[in-house]
Recover the amino acids of this structure.
C-alpha cells in the first residue's frame, strides 16, 4: 500500500495537470483579470451605481460602527437617520438656494449664444465650427441634429434618474452588511494567519478612508469660500461657479478650471456692449478669491491631511493625478491618489529592505 501511494505521488509530480504549472496558472489569472476589467467597462452603466453605493457605505461605516458600539443604536436606525438628514439637507438647500440656481441657470443658458457671438466677432472664432464638434458621427445618414440632441438628452436624463434611484438602494444594502462583508473577507483571505498583511491592509483602510472623507470636507469648505467671495466680487453665476469649483476641489489642483471659468465670464460681462477692460474687476478680485480658497485648501487643510495620511509630497500628488486622468479619465482623477496611497504603503511594507539595528 505504501508503495502504491508513493507511486501515485510520483506520477502526479512527474505529470501535473496544466493548471498546476505555475506559469500557466499565473497566465490564467492575468487573463481572468483582463476579462473582468473588460466586463466592468462594458457594464459601467450598472457598475457605477454599485461602486458608488459601496464607496458611500465605506465612508459612512465609521459613523455606523460608532453609534452601534457606543450608543447601541442598530445599523438600520443609523442608516435611516442618514437618509432623513440628507433628505432634509437637500430640501432646505433647494428651498433656500433653488431660486438662485434657477435664476443663474436661466441667465447662463440665455447668455451662452451672446458670448459665442461676441467671441466670434472679436477673435474670429467660428461658432459653426464649434457646433460641428458636438455632432454625432451617426448624423451623416441625414438625421436632423435636433433629434440626435434630444435623444442624447433623454439618454443622459434616464441614466441620471437610474443612478439617483439605485445608489441609495446599494448604499443601504452595503452599509447594513458592511461589517459582515469585511469579516467574511478576512476569513476567506486568512488574514489572521498573516498578521503583516492584515496590518498593511488596516493601514491602507485608515489612510484611504481618512483621505476621502477629508477631501469631501475640504471641497465643501472651499466651495463656500468661492461662492461668498465671487458674490462679493460680482462675478456672474457666482453660485454655480462656486459649487462647481468646490466639486472640482475633491480632486487636488482641478479647482483651477473653475477659476478660469470665473475669469472668462467676468471678462465677457465687463467687456460686453462696448465696455472697457478693467484689470481689478476682471483679474484681481476673482483671482484674490481663488487665492484665498486655494490657500485654505493647499496650505492649511491639504498639507495637514496629506502629510499624515498619504505620505505623498505635492509634486507626487500632481503627477499621480495627471497620470490617473490620462489613463482613466474622470475615475482616474478621482481614484488616482487612493491607489497611489495603497501602492506607497505596499512598497514601504514589502518592497523596501528591512533595516535592523546593528548589534
Amino acid at each position: 500500500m505504501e508503495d502504491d501511494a508513493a507511486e501515485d505521488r510520483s506520477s502526479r509530480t512527474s505529470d501535473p495537470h496544466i493548471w498546476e504549472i505555475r506559469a500557466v496558472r499565473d497566465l490564467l489569472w492575468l487573463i481572468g483579470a483582463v476579462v473582468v476589467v473588460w466586463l466592468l467597462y462594458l457594464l459601467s452603466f450598472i457598475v457605477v451605481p454599485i461602486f458608488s453605493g459601496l464607496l458611500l457605505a465605506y465612508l459612512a461605516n465609521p459613523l455606523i460602527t460608532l453609534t452601534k458600539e457606543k450608543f447601541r443604536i442598530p445599523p438600520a436606525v443609523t442608516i435611516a437617520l442618514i437618509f432623513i438628514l440628507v433628505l432634509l439637507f437637500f430640501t432646505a438647500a433647494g428651498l433656500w438656494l433653488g431660486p438662485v440656481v434657477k435664476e443663474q441657470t436661466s441667465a447662463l443658458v440665455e447668455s451662452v449664444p451672446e458670448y459665442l457671438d461676441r467671441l466670434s466677432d472679436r477673435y474670429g472664432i467660428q461658432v459653426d465650427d464649434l457646433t460641428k464638434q458636438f455632432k454625432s458621427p451617426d448624423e451623416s445618414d441625414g438625421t436632423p441634429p435636433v433629434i440626435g440632441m434630444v435623444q442624447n438628452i433623454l439618454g443622459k436624463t434616464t441614466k441620471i434618474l437610474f443612478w439617483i434611484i439605485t445608489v441609495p438602494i446599494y448604499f443601504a444594502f452595503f452599509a447594513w452588511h458592511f461589517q459582515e462583508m469585511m469579516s467574511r473577507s478576512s476569513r476567506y483571505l486568512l488574514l489572521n494567519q498573516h498578521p503583516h498583511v492584515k496590518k498593511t491592509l488596516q493601514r491602507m483602510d485608515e489612510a484611504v478612508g481618512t483621505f476621502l472623507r477629508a477631501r469631501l470636507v475640504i471641497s465643501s469648505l472651499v466651495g463656500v469660500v468661492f461662492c461668498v467671495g465671487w458674490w462679493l466680487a460680482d462675478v456672474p453665476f457666482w453660485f454655480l461657479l462656486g459649487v462647481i469649483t468646490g466639486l472640482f476641489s475633491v480632486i487636488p489642483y482641478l479647482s483651477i478650471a473653475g477659476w478660469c471659468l470665473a475669469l472668462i465670464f467676468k471678462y465677457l460681462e465687463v467687456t460686453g456692449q462696448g465696455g472697457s477692460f478693467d484689470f481689478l474687476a476682471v483679474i484681481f478680485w476673482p483671482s484674490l478669491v481663488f487665492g484665498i480658497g486655494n490657500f485654505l485648501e493647499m496650505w492649511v487643510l491639504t498639507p495637514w491631511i496629506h502629510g499624515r495620511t498619504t505620505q505623498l509630497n505635492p509634486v507626487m500628488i500632481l503627477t499621480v493625478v495627471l497620470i490617473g486622468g490620462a489613463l482613466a479619465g474622470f475615475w482616474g482623477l478621482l481614484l488616482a491618489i487612493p491607489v497611489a496611497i495603497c501602492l506607497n504603503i505596499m512598497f514601504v511594507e514589502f518592497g523596501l529592505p528591512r533595516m535592523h539595528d546593528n548589534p
Observations:
- Residues 119 and 125 are 6 Å apart (CA to CA).
- Residues 133-141 have pLDDT under 50 and may be disordered.
- The two ends are 54 Å apart (CA to CA).
- Residues 192-352 form one domain.
